[in-house]
Amino acid sequence: MSLHRYELGFLLIILNIYSLGLIDAVNVTASDSAANPLQAPSYQSHSSSAVYKPAVDSSYSINLLSSFPEDVEISEYCSEMLRLFGQRYVAYVNCLIPAARPVRVCQNCSPGYKSLSDVFLNISSDQMGPGNVSCRDSILRSDRLMLVFLLYGNLDTIWEKSNCKQCVTTDLKGPNNDTLYYLTLLNQTITCFEKYKEGNHTELCKSCTLPYKDLNDMYSGMEKNSTLCIDLEDSMNMTRKLWSKNFGCSYPHGETIPVIAVSSFMLFLPIIFYLSSFLHSEQKKRKLIHPKRAKSHNSLMNIQDKQS
Amino acid sequence: MANITKKVSWSSRGDESGAAGEETPLLNGSEQSRPLRQSLDYDNIENQLFLEEERRMSFVAFRCLEISRWVICGLIGFLTGLIACFIDIAVEQLAGLKYRLIKENIVKFTEAGGLSISLLLWVALNSFCVMWGSIIVAFIEPIAAGSGIPQIKCFLNGVKVPRVVRLKTLVVKVVGVIFSVVGGLAVGKEGPMIHSGAVLAAGVSQGRSTSLKKDFKIFEYFRRDTEKRDFVSAGAAAGVSAAFGAPVGGVLFSLEEGASFWNQMLTWRIFFASMISTFTLNFFLSIYHNKPGELSNPGLINFGRFESEAMEYNLYEIPLFIAMGAIGGGLGAFFNFLNYWLTIFRIRYVHRPCLQVMEAMLVAAVTATVAFIMIYFSTDCQPLGPDHTEEYPLQLFCADGEYNSMATAFFNTPERSVRSLFHNPTGTYNSLTLGLFTLTYFFLACWTYGLAVSAGVFIPSLLIGAAWGRLCGILLASTTSTASMWADPGKYALIGAAAQLGGIVRMTLSLTVIMVEATGNVTYGLPIMLVLMTAKIVGDYFQEGLYDLHIKLGSVPFLHWEAPATSHWLTAREVMSSPVTCLNRIEKVGTIVDTLSNTSTNHNGFPVVVQPAKLCGLILRSQLIVLLKHKVFVELARSRLTQRKLQLKDFRDAYPRFPPIQSIHVSQDERECMMDLTEFMNPTPYTVPQDTSLPRVFKLFRALGLRHLVVVDDDNRVVGLVTRKDLARYHVGKHGLEELHLAQT
């Protein structure tokens, strides 16, 4: 916590990310600090903007922009990278949005994230590309806004929050074995639900208990190992809701009489205890200390004399 | 006249029973042999031996003493932290085991039916734990019962409560508190922690343990009441600091409860001990939690940090806080009132150890039963959040993926419940749950305090307060459409907790600082202070604080900060005991032995006089006993010239358990010998003339920590003796000044 707070100091530059409401991302970005251009010197970008101050005349300034000298202009390679980043970004977002409800983010879009993060890694790595250029400084750190970093940060937060890493294979190509097994169980349960949905719900409760229980146990096991991602959580939530709310299959309120009997017995015990100890136990008396007083008999009178 | 001196005592409510009590001897045989509560000797006895020793001591030796004081304080802090750590881990492990066991059982029987079996299991486990906790307290060391704070308060006030700082007490206290918390009683482990710190301090500073018959031959200089008390106050501070992670609060606790004399150097040392204690606890807990070296998780009870924006308060909320303080004060007074009558009942009827054990077990059983019924019939189901902090969520009859919200309050160790009441997001509890919880827990906690188990009242009070405080927060939010205005109910839970605790224990300064430190947010200082002030004012209107009530019931001659008001017309002549047994400067051994053996002379100090009755010194019972033991008789000294001269060390070695007079054998011949007290008596005892007013005498006692004050006439002749007991019996009641008879315990 304290570490985190400390880093907030120089995270100030990218604080605008969090003002978008992604407060939880602080942790993520902070821990990834190695990959981030954390120390992006904002003052530098200020000073450089001071050098290339836009001219008063706006039409002239367009001309100026297009004719930046070679060494500050973005290289061919980097602009290519930027274009690629844009393409994959759009593709990923396009994948994400339809998968929002019901949540299929991990199953459908993990490869998209993989390709996006590959490009970003390329951009942010300090290894020189062809032509001995590193795109990190030119794309990520040259200005106050740091748009690419911000954009990627958003999606990265979504990825981290969805916890998809737990459900897909290490190369992010597709669901891993646990997930696949879970999905088969889920399918079984849903099919069972479909089958009995029409008739009496009690029958459904009876017949589908087995697949539902398997599914539930599997889920609980995965919860314990914390190998859950949002897809599974969401599907389980929906299934549970169906099971308990729609079909009303949770445990009945059981036999209440024995519980009441046992507890009223328990509650009666103290009454018996106190009554019996009141009636049978001998009362303990205390011996008072009697002070030896000078003129102890008339001391009361003494006091009263003084008063009057 | 308005001021009527009445004789009141708790056992003479109905005068006839009081009269009977005076005649009948104590029923409990063991009681009679118990020593009376005595005062501690804070006044340095500047007799010739002392002067000689001081002359012999070099400058370096004095520096060494100063350094060893620091070393002792460091040790006290370190060991207190260790003990706190041990208690914490033991409770966590054992309680975890218990709750897991019950949870599995409940899950099993929810499905199969037959939850009454789970109830029985819960009841059995609770009663079993509490039984052991209660057995060791009731049969081995009854003084370890309760929170221990009243006893430490008395000790720091200058009353020697027998056996309160023994090693055995410490062991019983620590083991007992683990059992009672694990046993699911409505108790906390913070009060016992304070007691434990104090015992440790008393033990460490003496460099030996009489119980273990082990003398390390170190710190011999500190074997005196004065030094011991300084260390005990450091220990109590270290205990508070370990319990709440509040080092400054600990120092202020010692200041508020104990100190009648206080110097800056001592404060600084006490602060050192508190700091060491918090950070020892921190360090070891960080290792336990697998984050070694992370030192920012102080305290047994960690309220968590109140830092989010929702926790901010606004000016318009201050009146609300004050109103809550008033509620807390009222509820606290009600709590104390109930507990007072319960305690009287217990003293009268439930005094046998086996009955006490049974009572404790019954309370444990009922606590479990009530909790179970509450959980069983609660229909408040809440969804299980992604980052749920509940360690043992119970589903019971809730829909899958939801848990029973009542169970988070009941099915948990009390301090975890406090934390979840403070920090769980809005909507975790509905108001019915909280209301029922407050109601039941209030009575359970009230019933529990005073049982023969080692247990504190801090956490239950906080829990009750947090529950109704949160309820207030929820109700406030529901009255306005803009719920954001009242923000987080956790804030109100904190204020409620402070109000309730303040209403029950009536601590002021130290409690404010403790709460502020435990929440880690200084901006809460003002509201907490206002709340505690209101709670104290409102509560004091109805009833005394819980600790003061128990001190009063224990018949402890406790001296409050000030003499009772309107007592200036009382003079030393009326207050003192008279006539006083005096000894001559050169006294016959037989007379001394007879005086000491005489049960009617219950004083522990004897004025030494030269004829005719002129005061020349004061000698203590303990000194006389040491003298008799070493047979320091004039005749023997003459015959055996080689005999070693008695030194101050001999008195220290006998400290603090001086043998009773019966165990010292004095032969018929020796009775005829003479004893010269000149060397050993305190040649300059404090004296007052007969017309000194009571407040003046009181001030002397309170400020100097006196034990005996000799009252003399114009010719320096002894006419009486004032002791703590003579002063403590006056107090201001409903009809002006009243005289209270202290009972013998």
Blueprint of the fold:
The complex is a heterodimer of chains A (308) and B (745).
Chain A: H1 2-11, H2 15-18, H3 25-31, H4 42-51, H5 58-66, H6 76-96, H7 105-124, H8 135-140, H9 147-162, H10 177-196, H11 201-224, H12 230-246, H13 257-280, E1 287-288, H14 299-307
Helix pairs in contact in A: 6-7, 7-9, 10-11, 10-12, 11-12
Chain B: E1 7-8, H1 15-23, H2 29-33, E2 38-39, H3 48-56, H4 59-112, H5 115-140, H6 149-157, E3 159-160, H7 167-182, H8 190-206, E4 208-209, E5 214-215, H9 225-244, H10 247-257, H11 264-288, H12 318-349, H13 353-377, E6 381-383, E7 402-404, H14 405-410, H15 414-423, H16 431-448, H17 458-479, H18 489-505, H19 509-519, H20 525-542, H21 546-553, H22 572-575, E8 583-584, E9 586-588, H23 589-597, E10 605-610, E11 614-620, H24 621-629, H25 634-639, H26 648-654, H27 668-671, E12 674-676, E13 687-689, H28 694-704, E14 708-712, E15 718-723, H29 724-728, E16 730-733, E17 736-740, E18 743-744
Helix pairs in contact in B: 4-5, 4-7, 4-8, 4-9, 4-11, 5-7, 5-13, 6-21, 7-8, 8-9, 9-10, 9-11, 10-11, 10-19, 12-16, 12-18, 12-20, 12-21, 13-16, 15-17, 16-17, 17-18, 18-20, 19-20
InterPro entries (chain A): Osteopetrosis-assoc_TM_1
Organism (chain A): Poecilia latipinna
Protein name (chain A): Osteoclastosis associated transmembrane protein 1
What's this, in brief?
The complex is a heterodimer of chains A (308) and B (745). Chain A is mostly helical and 308 residues long.
